[in-house]
Amino acid sequence: MMNQLKYISMLVLSIVLLDGTTINIPARAAGSKVLVTAENQSLSKSDIDKVIAFYEWAFAAKFTPEQRNQYQSLKLNEYRKDPAGTTKSINDIISNYTQVLGKNEDEQSRVRQAFNTEFVGELRNLPNDPEAKLLLSVYNSANANETAANNADNSSTSVGDISSIVGKWVWAHTGNSAYNTSGTFIGSNGSRFTYQFIPNGTVEFTGIMNVMSGSCNQQIFQSRKGKVKLSGSTMTINWSGGTFTRDFSCDRANNYTKTLPAENETYQVKFKTDLGQNQLCLISKDETCFSPTN
Question: CB of 100 within 8 A of CB of 111?
Fold first, then answer.
């Protein structure tokens, strides 16, 4: 489970960052306390503090002293089992966090929103993972209202009023990861589309695509909100204007962010079961089925 969580965090970060370049990891501060050493590698307190700083930035929440100690203990146990893998995941997070801090306030806000939209949902899918439980408790401490909405009942299996689809639903596809010649992770091919239906009749959509081609990285991000009505098996969404961002690392001159116009969409809706899991299927020209994430 822990390896899965490390992979998820880096995949989401690589998809939502708009710059495919890699930034060197800051040198370890002189005198930084080494907590554990294994296989000619060491883990310092400053390494863990930097990872905690990233999650505090992402969640807009502070770890309590108890949570900091608990997170440090989890990382020490993880390191003893897999020094190389733990070191790489920590270095990747620190490197990408450094990249995020180099962006302006608007871009930082976009990255934070996109990361939380996807990553927090994945945390909820790992109820038995100690690190996921801890990170989710930190997030929940600063996002109580959103958590209440996410935990709304979506267990109904019949299409009817809005209560039957309340919750977060996701379709995702993951491809190969890419590394530079030094072995540093630079991105992954992947797509992820998420609908979140709120009990008050609003809906939020996030679409993220990341395409690697050699050393070139193309990233597309779409976000919009609207009002949803469900009558029997017919869903109508009245979308407000949204945003669409395209960034191609090998063609910076033609990158852009544009505003999507307000529009209406209509779908036929049905539920089906796949491998024992209930899915929400939206049918327009094609059928796309989404799995619950909370």
Answer: yes
Task: Tell which residue, 260, 118, 96, 291, has the closest CA to residue 192.
Answer: 118
Percent share of the chain, pLDDT over 90:
26
DSSP secondary structure letter of residue 253? G
| Cα distance between residue 269 and residue 287, in whole Å | 9
| Domain boundaries of the chain, sorted by first residue | 2-147, 153-292
What are the angstrom distances between the C-alpha of 113 and each of 108, 165, 173, 205, 246? 9, 22, 20, 12, 17
User: In this predicted structure, what is the pLDDT of residue 147?
Assistant: 45
How close are the terminal C-alpha atoms of the chain, in Å? Answer: 17
Q: Are 194 and 169 in contact (CB under 8 A)?
A: yes
3-state secondary structure of 80: helix
Q: Is 208 exposed, middle or buried (0-12, 13-18, 19+ CB in 10 A)?
A: buried
Residue 31 or 128, more confident = 128
Which 8-state DSSP code applies to residue 139? H
